[in-house]
Specification:
alpha+beta, NADH Oxidase, 4 strands, about 40% helix
Length: about 200
């Protein structure tokens, strides 16, 4: 598939089959995700890959509760995803990297992290994962971090210093795939979004 086709075909899948993903395909997706750009080549992003119900249920059990699951019109279809990839960022890795000789400022002043590049780099990895899934015809959805981070990290043994960005569900898509309520929002045009030369 051409890159432009993968970009256009990429969408958030909300209904999955529970068919396991081929390990070689999954491995390729993860390797590609870790090839995404990284500020200072710090590589302060980690992925926890959960496969099969025994593992993926730890994600759902720590980040949702019975009330949420009962009220969600999408939970049943999403929870069938055979793979959940959890993306974490490591702020300390960037602070340490940018104190190294090739990155330290000439005036010796610590970097002001106006943009938290640890989250940017983790997001780059997630987007690469989403595009890789689209390229291979695999359904994928990104779910943000809204609840349960501490419980999830404890259940999986994730070091406390890491920040959880969110989860990527992966698997074979199932129909019907309920659209997001956000899909009805009109898309901004290129003319509205791109400013040539100045605003």
């Amino acid at each position: 598939m051409e890159f432009a086709d993968a970009v256009r075909r990429r969408h958030m899948t909300r209904n999955f089959r529970d068919t396991p993903l081929d390990h070689e395909v999954l491995g390729g997706l993860v390797v590609d995700a870790l090839s995404a750009p990284s500020a200072g080549n710090t590589q302060g992003r980690d992925l926890v890959v959960l496969e099969g119900t025994d593992q993926t249920s730890r994600y759902w059990d720590t980040t949702t509760d019975a009330g949420w699951r009962a009220a969600s019109r999408r939970f049943e279809g999403m929870s069938r995803a055979p793979v959940v990839v959890l993306a974490f960022s490591d702020p300390d890795a960037y602070v340490e990297r940018y104190a190294e000789p090739d990155k330290v400022r000439p005036d010796g002043v610590d970097v002001e992290w106006v943009v938290p590049y640890w989250h940017v780099d983790a997001a780059f990895a997630v987007m690469t994962l989403l595009l890789g899934a689209a390229d291979r015809g695999i359904g994928a959805a990104f779910l943000g971090n809204f609840r349960g981070e501490d419980a999830l990290k404890a259940a999986l043994g994730v070091p406390g210093r890491l920040a959880w960005l969110g989860a990527v569900l992966l698997g074979e898509p199932e129909l019907p795939d309920p659209p997001s309520s956000s899909a009805a929002r009109p898309r901004r045009t290129v003319a509205d979004s791109v400013h040539l030369g100045r605003w």
